Amino acid sequence: MVQHFGVIGFPVGHSLSPWIHQQFFQKSGIQGTYRKIAIAPDRFAQEITQLLSGDMHGFNVTVPYKEAIIPFLDELADNAASIGAVNTVTKKDGKWVGFNTDGIGFLRSIGTRFPDFLDELDKKILILGAGGAARGIYAAMLQTGMPVIDIANRTRASAEKLSQLNSGNTSSAVLSLEDAEASINKYDLIIQTTSVGMEPDDEGQLVKLGKLRTNTIVSDIVYKPIMTKLLKQAEQRGARIHQGHLMLLHQARYAFEIWTECKVDVQSMDIELKAVLEGR
C-alpha cells in the first residue's frame, strides 16, 4: 500500500521535507509519496477540512499554521498540548492526532553531534527567542533536568509566557538580549531559535559573542545559510558549532517514526542534506 504524506504551510516552496522523506522511503522500503501543499490563509479552514477527509496518512505543518491546525484535530499528544503548537499530524484509529517533533528532534540532533553533552546534567543553557521553535526546544530541554535554562528575547512578555512552561526545579531567568550578551560566558549551550540570520537577510545576528567561552556549544536552527553569521563568529572564538540542518533532519526522522513506526538510519544523511543546501 502506498502511503501519502506532505507538508502544509504558506509558503512551502522552499521546503526540503520532500527530499528528506524520499530518502526515508528509500531507506525503509516503504512505498510513499510526499508533497508540498501551499494553503493561502484565507482558504485555510476550507482546504484543511478537505485535506483531512481525503487519502492522506499524515502531514507536517509549518508556518503559519502550527497553532491554527489545532482546532481541526481530534487529539493532541502531551507535548503538543503543553507547547500549544503542532508540526506533525498522523491518522490513528480513524482520528487525527497532533504532535510536536521540534524539541525531541533538537535533542536527538545534539545527542548525535555531541554524544556526551546530555550525560552530565549540570549544564547552563541559553535560548535566544521565544517563538514556536523556542517553545518546542524549551519544553524538551526542561525534560532533561538541566539546572539552568534562561530565555532571552527582544520582547520580554513573550519570553515570560514561554517560561510558564516550566513547572519544575529548573531555574529560568528571562533576560533582555543585552543582558544575555553581557553574560554569554556563563553558558555551556546557546541555542538561537529565531529566523534572524536566515537568507536573504543573512547578516543578521541577535547577540554578539565577544565574551563567549572556548568549547561552548553554539547552535543555530537556521539552516540556510548552513553557516550563519552567529555560527561563524562562534567558530572563530573556539566554540563548538551545531548547524540547523541537523535539527531539520532529526525532527523529520521523528515525524516519520510517528507515521510509519519505522526508524531509519540517518548517519550519512546530514552530509547529503548539507550538500543539497549548499547547492552541490
Distance between the termini: 34 Å
Helical coverage, percent range: 25-40%
Instruction: Point out poorly predicted stretches.
Output: none
Number of separate structural domains: 2
The CATH architecture name of the largest domain reads 3-Layer(aba) Sandwich
CATH topology name of the largest domain, in short, is: Rossmann fold
Mean pLDDT metric: 95
Alpha-beta content class: alpha/beta
| The CATH C-level class name of the largest domain | Alpha Beta
**The biggest beta sheet, please?**
6 strands, mixed
Strand neighbour order, sheet with most strands? 2-1-3-5-6-4
Number of helices: 10
Strand element count: 12
Describe this structure in words.
- The protein is α/β, with parallel strands linked by helices.
- The protein folds into 2 domains: 3-100 and 246-277, Rossmann fold (3-Layer(aba) Sandwich); 103-242, Rossmann fold (3-Layer(aba) Sandwich).
- The chain is built from 10 helices and 12 strands.
- A 6-stranded mixed beta sheet has the order 2-1-3-5-6-4. Strands 9-8-7-10-11-12 form a 6-stranded parallel beta sheet, with helices on both faces.
- Helix 1 links the parallel strand 1 (3-9) and strand 2.
- Helix 4 (102-113) crosses helix 9 (244-260).
- The chain is globular, with a radius of gyration of 19 Å.
- 41% of the residues are buried.
